[in-house]
Amino acid sequence: MWRYLVGGLATLALVAAGVVLFNRSGRSVAALPSAPLAFAQNAADGALPDSVPQASDRTREQKRFDRYDKDRNGAVTREEYLANRRKAYAKLDTNHDGTLSFDEWAIKAETKFAVADADKSGAMNATEFATTAVKRKPPRVRRDCPPVGAAKAEASEGDDS
């Protein structure tokens, strides 16, 4: 009888260990940003920081709206909305007649091909073709405080004098 009891308890322990191992968060503590130096010093003293950082009330769409609203009157006019598109169109319209012919449009494609075809063979290999991909900007990482390592380096430089 005691064998069944021990076996049951061992099974429960294994199941609990499996739940703990497989249900933990994918983020580790090392992936979290480190605390600013001033906060770390206050935390070591047991004191709280003097002020709490405030989050911005502006959303991504509000920021986008403000980029388009050039005269800051709270409304995006047709001209403001189309300004960037007009600039791009004007770059393609080489003879500035207000119409975009196929030849004017094809100049950009021809130029892009000529630049990518590094060996001037008239055909692009896989490496050359990869250079024609649209370059996307990486997501911007926003940090209001310098990394802890930089703050420590600045503090140690100040101690030397």
UniProtKB/TrEMBL annotation:
<protein>
    <recommendedName>
        <fullName>EF-hand domain-containing protein</fullName>
    </recommendedName>
</protein>
<dbReference type="Pfam" id="PF13202">
    <property type="entry name" value="EF-hand_5"/>
</dbReference>
<feature type="domain" description="EF-hand">
    <location>
        <begin position="56"/>
        <end position="91"/>
    </location>
</feature>
<dbReference type="InterPro" id="IPR011992">
    <property type="entry name" value="EF-hand-dom_pair"/>
</dbReference>
<dbReference type="InterPro" id="IPR018247">
    <property type="entry name" value="EF_Hand_1_Ca_BS"/>
</dbReference>
<dbReference type="InterPro" id="IPR002048">
    <property type="entry name" value="EF_hand_dom"/>
</dbReference>
<feature type="region of interest" description="Disordered">
    <location>
        <begin position="135"/>
        <end position="161"/>
    </location>
</feature>
